[in-house]
Amino acid sequence: MNPKLKSFLSILLPGAGGFLAILACSLLGDTAGISLLMAPFGATCVIAFALPQSPLAQPRSVIGGHVLSTLVGLCTLTAFGVHAWSLALAVGAAIVLMLATRTLHPPAGADPLLVMLAGAKWSFLFTPVLLGAVLLVLVALGYHRATKVSYPTKWW
């Protein structure tokens, strides 16, 4: 294969994967009448499709990181409300919890801020967070199988 073509494809393919993942979340969510999208999922797509071998792209990190960080945001919002210090506390606590549980996923660091600034309800933990993260992992799995890229390197 032509090296220039291979280089072009290596740039184009992760973008196509992100396109498919967000399209799937959007269309499935619309069909079901629920939201399966949130802004941090765009950053998740960068890692899952451009860096699929990274520990940060593995299902444990994608799903666990988003769920745990959202949970921290919801708990902090419920306990303390929204203040400069509680926003900072939530992000710091989410980082600590992700590290302690081996679910580090940088895009999930934004989840507590999103939850708190939007005043999200507890249902946000399930839709869009849990269902959306699972769908992103499933799309990444299918996509990487189709493109013959080994993903995930480990499930849990």
UniProtKB/TrEMBL annotation:
The chain crosses the membrane at residues 34-51, 71-100, 120-143. The keyword Transmembrane applies. Keywords: Membrane, Transmembrane, Transmembrane helix. Residues 7-152 form the HPP transmembrane region domain. It comes from the Bacteria. InterPro entries: HPP, TM_HPP. This is HPP family protein.
